[in-house]
C-alpha cells in the first residue's frame, strides 16, 4: 500500500475505554469520529507497534518533545469554527 496515495483525515484527539473483554478506541476530528473495538491482545500489539514507529521516527529525524496530559482539549474545535461565522 502506498501511504502517499491513501485518503487521510486529521486526527486531533484519541480516546480509549475498556472492559475486561475489549478496548474501544475512538479517533476524533472535531465532533466526528471513528471508533474501533480491539481485543486486549490487539491493543497491546498496537501500543507496541506505535512505540516502535515513534522510536524509528526519532532515530531518523529528531526527538519529539511531547507530554501526555489527561483531559487536554484540542485548541481547534468544530464549535469554534461554527461560532466564528456569526
Total beta-strand segments: 3
Average pLDDT level: 86
Outline the biggest β-sheet: 3 strands, antiparallel
Strand order of the largest sheet: 1-2-3
Overall geometry: globular
The stretches of 5 or more residues where confidence is low (pLDDT under 50) are none
Q: How would you classify the quaternary structure?
A: single chain
> How would you spell out the order of helices and strands?
EEEHH
Which structural class matches the secondary elements?
alpha+beta
Percent helix: 25-40%
**Strand content bin:** 15-25%
Cα separation of the termini = 43 Å
> C-alpha Rg, in Å?
16 Å
- Please count the helical segments: 2
Protein name: DUF3467 domain-containing protein
Structure explained in plain terms:
With 86 residues, this protein is α+β, with helices and mostly antiparallel strands. The chain has a domain at 13-68. It has 2 helices and 3 strands, in the order E-E-E-H-H. A 3-stranded antiparallel beta sheet has the order 1-2-3. This is DUF3467 domain-containing protein.
Please write out the topology.
Elements: E1 13-18, E2 23-29, E3 32-38, H1 40-60, H2 78-84
Antiparallel strand pairs: 1-2, 2-3
Quick structural overview:
The chain has 86 residues and is an alpha+beta fold.
